[in-house]
Write a structure and sequence with these properties.
Number of helices of chain A: 3
Radius of gyration of chain B: 31 Å
Number of strands of chain B: 18
Shape of chain A: globular
Number of domains of chain B: 4
Shape of chain B: elongated
Order of helices and strands of chain A: HEEHEEEH
Distance between the termini of chain B: 39 Å
Helix content of chain B: 25-40%
Distance between the termini of chain A: 8 Å
CATH architecture of chain A: 2-Layer Sandwich
Helix content of chain A: 40-55%
CATH topology of chain A: Beta-Lactamase
Number of strands of chain A: 5
Structural class of chain B: alpha+beta
Strand content of chain A: 25-35%
Oligomer: heterodimer
Largest sheet of chain A: 5 strands, antiparallel
Strand order of the largest sheet of chain A: 2-1-5-4-3
CATH class of chain A: Alpha Beta
Strand order of the largest sheet of chain B: 2-1-3-4-5
CATH superfamily of chain A: Dynein light chain 2a, cytoplasmic
Structural class of chain A: alpha+beta
Radius of gyration of chain A: 14 Å
Largest sheet of chain B: 5 strands, parallel
Number of domains of chain A: 1
Chain lengths: 127, 727
C-alpha cells in the first residue's frame, strides 16, 4: 500500500509538466502498477498493449543489431506523443508510460523521466 | 549536390572539405583509401570531381589516374603529390580534366581547385585520356619506381622501367633504350598499366631524362635557342592538335600508321582526309625519331609487329624476363615467328600487310609459308571514298548519355571537322541525309546502365550483353526463367530529368503456384524470404542482390531484386528499385543515416539500403511492421488516433519507422481492406540512424520521401507491379 501511494505521488509530480496527458507504470508482464490521469484509458488493455508493443520493439532492435531499447516515442495523429521507457535493474523490471501533447518540451520530459525512474525503482525495491 | 571523391590514405582534410561543401551547399565528399574502392564508387555514383593522391602505396595513385583517365576522360581530376605544382604544370601538358595540387595540402587552394574543376567541366573541349608522354613526365616528376606496361589490344607492346623517377630502361620485344621509347611513343590507342618489377637487377639503357627523350621524339618543343617552329605558343608544348593525334611531325609521306596507308598526308585522319584529300600539311623539320624511322622501321606498323611477335597466350611476366635475359642481337628476332631471323627479314614485306589480313599473320606464326606479297599500288582516289576504314581499338566505356529518338522524317546529320586538325585551316560541312524508313536511334547502354537493367531487358539488347555481366549482378540464379515478353526498351536512367521515351516495363513475375501451403487461406499472399547473395564487399560497403520473392496470389509484393550498400545513393537493382531509390534520395542528406528501407504492409522489406553485412536483412527490417501494428493498436486504445511515426532510441542510435498513410489513403478501399486483412499493418519507411543523428531532420526527409512515393504510385498505379497495391 505504501509502495502504491509512493508510485502515485511520483506520477503526480510528472503531471506538472506542461501538456501532460497521462502516465502509467506497467510491470514487465503487462500488469498496471499505477496510473495518473489518462482519461478514457482502459488501464488493463493499455498495459497489455504497452507490454506487447515493447516486446516487438525490443525484438526489432535485437534483430537489427542496434542495441537495447532505451526509450520508445510514438507520435499520434491528434498531436500527442507517447513516451515509453523501460527499466530493468536488480530484478526490478517495469515500464514508465508518459503521454504529453506535442507542445511539451521533449527535453523537459526526458529530464523528468530520468528523475522519476530511480524513484520508482526505489519504491518498488522497498515494497 | 555535386559529389567529390577524395582518394587518399588518412586524409586529414576530408572532414574540413566536407564541412565546407556542406556549409556552402556546393558539394558532398566521399572518401576511398585505395584505387579499387575509388573505381567501385566512380562506376556506381555520378562523381563530379576526383581528388587523388598520386603517392598512395605502390603505384596505386597512378593506376587510378590512368584508369579514370582512360575510362572517364571528361571527369575532372585533381592530383595531389609532393612535386611542385609549378614544376608539374610547366613540365606536363595541361589537360582540361587534369589539375595538380602540391602537398602539404592548402585547403583553401584545394577548394578553389575543386570548384574550378567543377565549373569548367564540359566547357573545355580538350578532355581526353592522359597520353603516354604525359604519364612518363608525371612518373619522373613524382620520382616513382615502377614498371610501366604498354599494351595494344591486350597484347604487351613494351615496358618502361623507372627507378626513383629516372627512366632506367625501356624495351619492346625487339628494341631497347631510346629506340624502344620511340617505338612505343608511336603506338596509337595503347593501354597503360603497371607490371610487377622483376626481382633482379635491370640494367640502365637510357641515359637521357624524359624531357630530352620527348624532345628528340618531337613531342616536346626544344628550348628557345633550339626552337624552329614559330607557331608554338605554350611553354614547352607542341600544338595541342598535333599532340592529340600522337603522330610525329613527319616528312615521310606516311607515319607507318594504318590509317595513313592510303598515301594521304601524315597526321591527318583519313575520315576527314578522304573528304578533302587535297589538303596539304606543313612540313616541319625532321626529328631524331623520324630520322630513325626513315632509316630502319618507318615501314613498320607497330600494332602488326606486336601482334606477330607475341603469341596470343603469351604471359606478361615470362615475356618480360625473357626479353631482359636475351642478348640484344637475339632480341631482334624474339618471338615464335621471327626467332633467329635477321632484322632485314623482320622488316620483310609480309609484315606490311594490312591489318585485316591478321589471319595470314597467324598462319605465319604457326610456321606456314607466307603467301607471296602483294605488290603495292597507288590507291585510286575514287576507291578511297568507298574504302572501309581499318578497325579501331576498343573504345573506353562512355559516361551515361541520354537516349535520343527520331520518329519521323529524314535524319540530317552535319559532320564537322575538329577545328584544330593540323594542316587544315578551313573545312566544308558534310551533310548526310537518310530518308525513310523512320529511324529510332538509341545509344548503347553504359556498363552501369547495363547493371541496372533486368534480365529480360538485357535479353532484348543485341549481342547478348548478359554474357558480359556477372550472374550475381544480373540476378540469374536458376534456369526456370519464363521467356521474356516482347516489350519496348525501358528507360535506362529513371532519375534523369529527360522525358522517358518508352513506358516502364516491369519484369514478368513468377507464375503463381496452384495450391497454397497448408495452414493458410487460399487467397492469402505467401512470401518467401528473398535469397540474398553478396555481390561485392569492400571495407564497410556490402552490396547484395536478391531474387524477387515468390508469391502465390496477386497481392502485390516486391517484383525484383533488393540492393544493399552502405552508401544510400548507390543502388544495384532493377527498374522498380531504381525508381524507389530516386524517391528515397532526400534521405541522402541526413547526417548519421545508416540505411533506410521501404516496408510492405505484410512485413517484407521491399527495398533497403542497409549498410551492415546481414544476409537476411529483408526479414529483419520487415520486423518493424509488427511494432508498428502494436503501436497503432495502443494509440487506438488510448484514444489518440493513428500513428504518425515511431522512434526506438537504443544505445546504438535510433530506429525510425514512419507509416505511409498518404499512400494508404490512395489505395482503393477494397484493396485496403484486403491488405489489412492479410496483415495488420501498413506500408512504412524505416530509417536507421546513428547515435547523435537528428531525428527531426530524418523525419522531415521521410515525409518528403513519402510524397515522392505517392507521386511514384500515381505514375505507376496502372502498372501491375506496384508492390503495395494488392490487385
Amino acid at each position: 500500500m505504501a509502495a502504491s501511494s509512493t508510485l502515485s505521488a511520483t506520477l503526480d509530480r510528472l503531471a506538472q509538466i506542461d501538456g501532460f496527458h497521462g502516465a502509467a507504470i506497467v510491470s514487465a508482464d503487462g500488469e498496471p502498477m499505477a496510473t495518473a490521469k489518462g482519461d478514457g484509458w482502459d488501464v488493463e488493455q493499455t498495459s497489455a498493449l504497452v507490454c506487447n508493443f515493447f516486446a516487438a520493439a525490443r525484438k526489432l532492435s535485437t534483430e537489427l543489431q542496434w542495441g537495447s531499447v532505451l526509450q520508445l516515442d510514438l507520435a499520434a495523429s491528434n498531436g500527442s506523443v507517447v513516451y515509453l521507457r523501460p527499466h530493468s535493474a536488480a530484478g526490478i523490471e517495469f515500464m514508465l508510460l508518459l503521454v504529453c501533447k506535442a507542445e511539451a518540451s521533449k527535453a523537459l520530459v526526458r529530464l523528468r523521466m530520468d528523475q522519476t525512474i530511480p524513484e520508482i525503482a526505489t519504491a518498488l525495491s522497498n515494497a | 549536390m555535386k559529389k567529390v571523391l577524395v582518394v587518399a590514405e588518412k586524409p586529414f582534410f576530408v572532414d574540413l572539405l566536407a564541412e565546407h561543401g556542406a556549409a556552402t551547399g556546393l558539394f558532398g565528399v566521399l572518401n576511398a583509401d585505395n584505387s579499387a574502392k575509388a573505381l567501385d564508387i566512380i562506376e556506381s555514383i555520378l562523381i563530379d570531381v576526383v581528388v587523388a593522391d598520386l603517392e598512395l602505396p605502390g603505384v596505386d595513385g597512378f593506376e587510378l589516374l590512368l584508369a579514370v583517365s582512360q575510362r572517364f576522360p571528361t571527369m575532372p581530376l585533381v592530383t595531389l603529390s609532393s612535386a611542385s605544382q609549378k614544376e608539374l604544370s610547366s613540365r606536363v601538358e595541361t589537360l582540361a580534366a587534369l589539375r595538380f595540387h602540391s602537398k602539404p595540402v592548402n585547403l583553401e587552394s584545394l577548394i578553389n581547385e575543386v570548384c574550378d574543376a567543377m565549373d569548367n567541366v564540359g566547357a573545355n573541349q580538350r578532355c581526353r585520356p592522359i597520353e603516354l608522354s604525359t604519364t612518363l613526365q608525371l612518373l619522373e616528376a613524382c620520382r616513382r619506381t615502377c614498371m610501366l606496361r604498354i599494351k595494344v589490344q591486350e597484347t604487351p607492346a613494351g615496358f618502361f622501367y623507372f627507378r626513383d623517377g629516372t627512366l632506367f630502361n625501356a624495351f619492346t620485344p625487339s628494341l631497347k633504350g631510346e629506340e624502344a621509347i620511340f617505338e612505343l611513343l608511336r603506338i596509337q590507342g595503347a593501354t597503360l598499366g603497371f607490371a610487377k618489377i622483376p626481382d633482379r637487377n635491370i640494367p640502365r639503357t637510357v641515359d637521357a631524362d624524359i624531357t630530352t627523350v620527348l624532345r628528340r621524339a618531337g613531342l616536346l618543343r626544344s628550348p628557345p635557342e633550339e626552337s624552329f617552329a614559330p607557331g608554338r605558343t605554350s611553354a614547352g608544348m607542341i600544338p595541342p592538335a598535333q599532340h592529340r593525334t600522337g603522330r610525329m611531325p613527319s616528312l615521310l609521306g606516311h607515319t607507318g600508321d594504318a590509317q595513313s596507308d592510303y598515301g594521304g598526308p601524315a597526321g591527318v585522319d583519313p575520315t576527314y582526309a578522304e573528304v578533302r584529300p587535297s589538303r596539304r600539311v606543313p612540313t616541319p623539320r625532321k626529328s631524331a625519331l623520324e630520322e630513325w624511322h626513315e632509316s630502319t622501321a618507318s615501314r613498320l606498323r607497330p600494332s602488326s609487329v606486336v601482334k606477330q611477335l607475341y603469341s596470343p597466350d603469351a604471359d606478361d611476366g615470362d615475356e618480360l624476363l625473357e626479353i631482359l635475359e636475351t642478348p640484344p642481337r637475339q632480341q631482334r628476332g624474339h618471338g615464335p615467328f621471327v626467332k633467329g631471323r635477321p632484322l632485314d627479314d623482320l622488316l620483310s614485306p609480309e609484315l606490311l600487310l594490312p591489318p585485316e589480313d591478321s589471319a595470314i599473320s597467324y598462319d605465319i606464326a604457326r610456321g606456314a609459308r607466307p603467301p607471296a606479297p602483294q605488290p603495292r599500288r597507288a590507291p585510286d582516289p575514287r576507291e578511297l571514298l568507298t574504302r572501309k576504314p581499318a578497325p579501331l581499338p576498343p573504345m573506353p566505356p562512355l559516361p551515361p548519355r541520354p537516349t535520343v529518338a527520331y520518329e519521323h522524317g529524314p535524319l540530317e546529320v552535319e559532320m564537322e571537322q575538329p577545328p584544330d586538325l593540323p594542316g587544315v585551316d578551313t573545312y566544308t560541312p558534310l551533310e548526310l541525309i537518310i530518308d525513310p524508313p523512320p529511324i529510332e536511334l538509341e545509344l548503347p547502354p553504359t556498363p552501369l546502365e547495363m547493371d541496372l537493367l533486368s534480365d529480360d531487358e538485357l535479353e532484348l539488347l543485341d549481342d547478348g550483353p548478359t554474357a558480359l555481366l556477372p550472374r550475381e549482378i544480373t540476378g540469374e540464379t536458376g534456369p526456370s526463367k519464363a521467356p521474356p515478353p516482347v516489350a519496348p526498351m525501358p528507360p535506362l536512367m529513371p532519375a534523369a530529368p529527360a522525358p522517358l521515351v518508352h513506358p516502364f516495363t516491369p519484369p514478368t513475375p513468377p507464375a503463381p503456384s496452384a495450391a497454397p501451403p497448408p495452414g493458410l487461406p487460399p487467397d492469402r499472399p505467401v512470401a518467401t524470404a528473398p535469397e540474398s547473395q553478396v555481390v561485392s564487399q569492400s571495407g564497410d560497403a556490402t552490396i547484395t542482390a536478391a531474387e524477387p520473392p515468390n508469391r502465390t496470389s496477386d497481392a502485390g509484393l516486391a517484383p525484383a531484386a533488393v540492393a544493399v550498400t552502405s552508401a544510400p545513393a548507390v543502388v544495384v537493382g532493377r527498374q522498380w528499385q531504381i525508381r524507389v531509390a530516386a524517391a528515397l534520395s532526400p534521405l541522402g542528406d541526413v547526417v548519421g543515416l545508416r540505411g533506410c528501407a521501404l516496408l510492405s504492409n505484410n512485413g517484407l522489406a521491399l527495398f533497403s539500403t542497409m549498410g551492415w553485412p546481414v544476409a537476411s536483412h529483408e526479414e529483419q527490417t520487415g520486423l518493424a511492421t509488427r511494432p508498428l501494428a502494436d503501436a497503432l493498436a495502443l494509440l487506438k486504445a488510448m484514444g489518440l488516433g493513428n500513428c504518425e511515426n515511431m522512434g526506438l532510441r537504443t544505445d546504438s542510435g535510433t530506429i525510425l519507422v514512419m507509416p505511409l498513410k498518404a499512400l494508404m489513403a490512395l489505395l482503393p478501399k477494397k484493396a485496403e481492406r484486403k491488405a489489412a486483412d492479410a496483415v495488420q499493418g501498413q506500408p512504412a519507411l524505416l530509417a536507421l540512424l546513428d547515435k547523435g543523428a537528428s531525428t527531426a531532420m530524418a523525419l522531415h526527409r521521410l515525409g518528403q520521401c513519402e510524397l515522392s512515393l505517392v507521386e511514384l504510385y500515381q505514375e505507376t498505379q496502372e502498372e501491375p507491379t506496384w508492390p503495395l497495391l494488392p490487385h
